[in-house]
Amino acid sequence: MKTLVVYSPKGGTGKTTIARNIAVAAALSGRSVATLDTDPQGTLSSWWGKRPDDAIPIQHFRVLLKDITSSPEPIDGVDLLVVDTPTAVEAFPQQTEYLLSIASLVLTPTSATGEDVESVSSAMQHIRSHRRSAAFVLNRIKPRVKESASARRALAGKGEVAPIDLPDLAEVYRTFSLGLGVQELSDTRCAEDFNALWAYVSDKLWGVS
After folding, report:
1. Cβ of 72: how many Cβ atoms within 10 Å?
2. Which contacts of 175-180 are long-range, i.e. CB under 8 A and separated by 24 or more positions?
């Protein structure tokens, strides 16, 4: 089982959005997928509870970060576990270490704002100190805005940056109330972006897209 941890100390960077859409993309590609919600807000759990009965199957588990007492064990029959984490992970350092210890890959989403870039840069230093494979993901990006290019340059000096920028589109947020990923709807403009991110993640995890 591979484990993808979506991790950032900064709120509002889109961790849950990325976690659920990566999970859907992986499931649609034929992987057996489970999600783990460690956030007290339970947004990923709420999304999963809204999934239609005929949607592609995704197993789901919820264990709050504060209640994790050891590194999670592999789940039988699951190819990929996608872990959504809360903000303020620094309040639970030991529990966070447990999650990072099992991470096959850590994705750290960020917007292009200076404060977000600064916050996630320090988080990446922490992740890399544990010798975890990790990458930034620029999220909620507005096209042709100079701050996006500036953020990419700044992040590149701190770690790997995923080659796909995820757009700031209302359709991404609308899928939450449907319990779906953008890839499960027709005529969405950003499905290709999330599929491209999944191809990148799949290559990092298995060497295939």
Report:
1. 18
2. 175/21, 176/17, 176/20, 176/43, 176/47, 176/50, 177/50, 178/50, 178/52, 179/47, 179/48, 179/49, 179/50, 179/51, 179/52, 179/55, 180/24, 180/51, 180/52, 180/55
Q: What are phi and psi of 38, to 5 degrees?
A: -110, 5
Number of domains in the chain: 1
105 φ/ψ angles, rounded to the nearest 5 degrees:
-155, 140
Assessment of whether the complete model's pTM goes beyond 0.90 = yes
- The pLDDT tens digits for 15-64 are 999 999 999 999 999 999 999 999 999 999 999 999 999 999 999 999 99
Provide the strand spans (E) within 93-181: 105-110, 134-138
The rounded distance, in Å, linking the Cα atoms of 120 and 50 is 31
CA distance 153 to 137: 13
Q: What is the per-residue burial (b if ≥16 Cβ within 10 Å, else e) of 111-143?
A: bbeeebbebbbebbebbeeeebebbbbbbbbee
Q: Which domain holds residue 148?
A: 2-206
Inter-residue contact 182 to 169 (CB < 8 Å): no
CATH number of the domain encompassing residue 130: 3.40.50.300
CA distance 113 to 131: 27
